[in-house]
Amino acid sequence: MVMEPITLQDIEHWLRETDEKALEMLWARADEVRQAAVGHEVHLRGLIEISNYCVRRCAYCGLAAGNRTIERYRMTREEILECALKAVRLGYGTVVMQGGEDYGIEADWLADIIVEIKKQTPLAVTLSLGERPDEELKLWKRAGADRYLLRFETSDPHLYELIHPSLPGKKSDRFEILRRLQQLGYEAGSGVMIGIPGQTYATLARDIHIFSSMDLDMIGVGPFIPSPNTPLGRGEIQFDIDPSEQVPNTEMMTYKTVALTRLVRPDANIPSTTALATINKESGREFGLMRGANVVMPNLTPVQYREKYEIYPGKACINETAEQCSGCLRGRIASIGRTVGTGQGGRVKRPT
Ligand code: SAH
């Protein structure tokens, strides 16, 4: 299919589009581009939420330091390795170890776990542990980690600083860390939230446009879901934007963002996220997959920790065992005529 490159203006236009017939065209185009570039397989990435401790005070996140309403946990080495073996048994090609920015996760300790997973399994290892120092990212790469996920959350620097305050003495620059991760040889993933208070259509359009220039392997986009024990959830931050410019944190806006992300980055791995499944538990996952996505992330976290990893409330799949989550997602994938990918499901390299 020959297509015009999509411009920043086109993206903003689509984000504001409300005509159902026009949107049907967008979904169809995203689905075609997905099929042509990455095929019909849906890759499963097993998610292990290894710790909910965090040093940061992000205004959107329920795990932020200072939130005393959640009980903190950190998984043990044995528990993590057990989850990795379960990932293999369930037929997943990747595990994603995610957590708060928790320096109680010591670099050497985690490096040993990565070595062990790589020794015992054929899994790709993905990390998503916040803004850890360069030395640690290097150490984990040498230990065998393959990928790192770090969403830049929004490309508006003013909004970013408001919702993601820097630690004292160190300006938070996720774009810089992403470049560094790529230099170190990681496959890098990033993304944004949709409908953050203070996020305008122009900003979200720019976020999507920026995806096209970053050579990302994975791009995750999901709706912002207010978390009651956070400054954003309590409505404590004031924004001086025209209300008509505010992006809504809706299901529809999420589909538009998924579809446009596919159009600007045909070969990226794009998940149909848990946040999307949370705002439409019936069929959010399926619609995401039908409108550009090609990855889902079944939860492997032991059930006793699940509800403590409360980034936002009402998270989908919270009461399921890993086995149930796998069965449910496989059923959903089959119901839309797609197949589950085998192997690590890494980046589909563009023909040169
Ligand atoms: N500590 C890691 C992992 C954070 S959780 C990090 O900061 O990178 C992964 C993602 O969940 C975040 O990057 C953010 O985009 C998303 N998230 C956090 N709070 C959210 C909320 N209230 N609603 C929707 N998504 C949220």
Structural overview:
- The protein has 352 residues and is α/β, with parallel strands linked by helices.
- The protein has one domain (8-336): TIM Barrel (Alpha-Beta Barrel).
- The protein is 39% helix and 12% strand.
- It has helices at 8-16, 20-38, 77-89, 107-120, 134-143, 157-163, 174-183, 201-211, 251-264, 274-279, 284-290, 303-306, 322-335; strands at residues 41-51, 94-99, 124-128, 147-149, 187-194, 218-223, 295-296, 339-340.
- Strands 1, 2, 3, 4, 5, 6, 7 and 8 form an eight-stranded parallel β-sheet that branches.
- The mean pLDDT is 95.
- The structure holds S-adenosyl-L-homocysteine (SAH).
- S-adenosyl-L-homocysteine (SAH) binds next to loops.
- Residues 60-61, 98, 100-101, 128, 130, 150-151, 153, 193, 222, 224-225, 227, 275, 311-312 line the site of S-adenosyl-L-homocysteine.
Structural class: alpha/beta
What is the name of the CATH class?
A: Alpha Beta
Q: Which strand-content bin applies to the residues?
A: 5-15%
Question: Under the CATH scheme, which architecture would be assigned?
Answer: Alpha-Beta Barrel
Counting DSSP E segments of at least 2 residues, the number of strands comes to 8
Low-confidence stretches: none
Major sheet description? 8 strands, parallel
Bound molecules: S-adenosyl-L-homocysteine
Reported by name, the CATH topology is: TIM Barrel
**How many structural domains can be distinguished in the coordinates?**
1
How many alpha or pi helices?
13
Order of helices and strands: HHEHEHEHEHHEHEHHHEHHE
Residue-averaged pLDDT: 95
